[in-house]
Amino acid sequence: MMVENSDPRAVLGVSVTAGPEEIRAAYLEAVKRHSPDRDPEAFERIRDAYEALRDPKRRIQLVLLAEDPRTPLAEWLDAQTKKRRFVGPRPWLDALRKT
Amino acid sequence: MSRRRNRKKNRAYGRTVEASPAVRGSFEEGAALVSGLLEARQLKQALEEAKSLHRRESSPSSESLLIEAYLAKVDAFSPSMATEAAALLDLVEGRHPQARTRTARLRLRLAARAGRFEDLLRTLADDSTPKEVREDIERMIREDATDLDALAACPSLPPEHALRVAASEVLRALSTVTSEPIEDESLSGLPLSRRSPLAPWKFLLRAIGCFYREEDEAVEELAAAIEPGAAPAPLGRALVAMVKGERLESPALRSLATSVGGDVRSLREALVELDRAFERENPRPIREATRTAIRLCRTERPELAESLKQRISVKAFILGVPAEKLQATLGGPSLHDARFWRLLAHALEGDGDAVLACAAWEEFRRNALEERWFEAGGPEEAAIYSKMIGLMLRLDRESRRKVKEHFPRAFPGFGAFYVDQPEAIRARAPPGRPDAYFLDLETLFERCAECDPDPETFRQWLSWGKTEPGWKSAERAALAWSRARPEDAAPLVHLAFACEARSALKKAISFLERAEKLDRLHPDVRRARRRLLTATAVRHFQSRNLGLVSKDIAEIERLSDAEEGDRPALTAALGWLRGALAGNGEERVPYDAVTRAFEDEMAASCFLHGLAEASKLGGPLFMAPLPSPASPAQGEAGRLSKAIARAAALGVDVGLSIPIPRGWEDPLRRDLESSSARLEPRELRMLAEVALGREENEIAYVASGHGLSHGEPHTARFLLLRAESLPPWESDRIRDCLSAAVELARGHRDMELVASIVDAGRFRTGLRLGFGFPSDAAASAEKAIPDVVKREREDKAFPRWSGSVPEPLVECQCDFCRRERRAETAPFQRPLFEDDEDEGLVFDELDDSEDEEIPPEVLGVLLEMEKKYGPSVDPEFIARKDPAIALRLAEALERSGFRNRGNEPPPRRKRRSKRKRKGKP
Fold it and tell me: How many CB contacts within 8 angstroms connect chain A with chain B?
């Protein structure tokens, strides 16, 4: 299951300057990872995000409205996609050895 | 650990263990207690109880129990405490030699946990090792082998041994799965059978893969498949805790969760505290909470640290927290890039500071272009201008004027925000004073339309232009639209209407012809053609050119929609009037034809009155044959009202002002009072508007009251009409009606109605809408609106002056009256449109006339107009608002030898100058 995020850019993992081609590539990549069979909810979110970013008008609105500074900081943190970092095997094995 | 804490812990495990019953009870009881404590993993207490029991009993059974407690205690030592574990085992072996067999196995397990597999695997490499021993060794590896590097490199086994190969493969797979996203299928080739001591690792590897693919449900399923006692099981539990956002007990696992980004609980708690500090608006707690939050963010989500700094900076800026002190806690200023400016602009918008928000959006635009978020001159830039337009439209016209005057002088710009920034951002600092172009709505519309010539932009521009005084703003919008999108008929239709309203019929027709080439069937194009033909016919009536009137009638009849609705009545009425004027019996259109077209004698009569008046044929000669209303017959209540409304509606359709015929006022009022339920909102609105045109405020009052009974969505419109119908001394009611109306109209997003209400407010009461409503400061506008509507709906009686003070002493709030009594200008009030140089004032031409004296007849009408509407008012407004007085002025001008302009508003300065330049009189 993907982490909930209302910002389509974050759902597809593209930067604010991403053009149509980059957005499409990110969409295809995301669909590959979250196919409709395996994870229909995530697929739906990805498709909605792509639809939002594909429409130039909506994309522009997202540039303007993507971030609301009035959101409480804790909620803002929750809304950020938990980017799970690839740290290599060492921290995993070290944690296991120290447990 | 104290007994009290032990009791607490025991309760947590759902068990109740009495303190030291081993000392008091039988051996069996003591043994059961120790076993229970071991099972509950209360190892220290178990050991103490076992020692006590053994001291008392000193039997082989008690010794065995004590050894078991010792071994459990040693077994629980972490791998990092291998030395302590070995020392304790030595101690146990020394005191209890018979424990050697059991301690030897534990020593092997401890060695395996510490990554020393030599002794353990040497036995495994020996082919003669019994099966049971082999299985025990494999079990130990399954449960204790956490150091796969050591296992893969263990010299006790040959390199090709299956266990070493498997360990190498697991290590390789772990390296891959924790370094890049991989598919589950790529793990299927691992050489691990179900019976392999490393089989649980396969589940762990797949769970980690799912964790990085954010397939959290699969993570839980795979983690559950790892045997609880298996070596990698703690990592499985950690994965589940991370996806569920649960707290991990082990510091090592917490550290892992932080480094892979799964655990942000500490940061979240710090941000909750910071949010609370912002709510309290106390700078000191804000700074303290900021320091903690930034520190944790740098550890737990370093990629979010800059973004968090920007958010904190913006929130603090809005609250007015001193920047220098905050920067110290932030560890330096936040980055003032495009993202920061966007945040600041949003925050200023939320704070209600529309103008400063525009300035921040401008900074965002410049920075975003520098950072190449989008290309210059494209739809993105247009969207920013559109945003600024929305913000500036939040201000009313008067506020915009004041802001335009004062803001550029008072606002120093955002230059200070670029100090202490990296060189790349510092270079973006605007040179000199800021460009406050955004204060001018027309400039914003121009820029927006230039970047994105979208019809919606032009439509909004034109819509705004129509609400501005005079016609030039709207005309500029329409011309720009037509230039940018020559294929659109809408601007040409507007230009045709606007020229027609100024009686510039030739120009209007040229625009209309262009519009017809684009879209002949467009309803607005057809309507414009109909109105223009009617206006031409009226003009020909005025010049008594009946031949051309016949042509006009023929053209109107040829229109494709000439037979729709009441429109046949127009041609019939034009024909009747032409016949009446010509006096030619054969060509005369019978009066019955008009009646038949309307199917109503009163409607026909009312329309003919209006047509004759517009054509300056309203004398008794032509009016004499027309019927007048009688008292309504039984069951006919509402007939007269409906008739007048129909005639007026046809007038609006064809561009004619149809007033209430003289002498019909009383019958209409009586009819209206007795027919509330029979009239539609559109009929009531029409009646109220024509009544106001004749200054028959009582009729408009009754009509608006009936209109309010129809509820939404008509309430705003009828509140405006009610306000306009009220006498001037009812200033509180007028203010309440207008304030409620403007709130409702805004809610319906009917900006044209909003503009009308705002104009009416300034005109009637000097009221700046949005202030002082409701009268009771504690009540909200939302709550006050229903009260106002209810009061106006229920108050049926037109207000009469009943005070002891003579009526004239009630102070009128219009410009003229205030100036007359030398009163201070009402708050927010100013002479209407004083700054509009291009706008022709009603009196311009006469004021500037050096060679012409104002005839007394004209002067009388002018003074009346000035008294009613103030000294400087748009002629279009007068023509629309009070056609009767505009007509009287035109007639007076004509009689006094001024150029005949019919219904045309008095001339404008510019046009007159042009004629003078051309040498025309």
Answer: 154
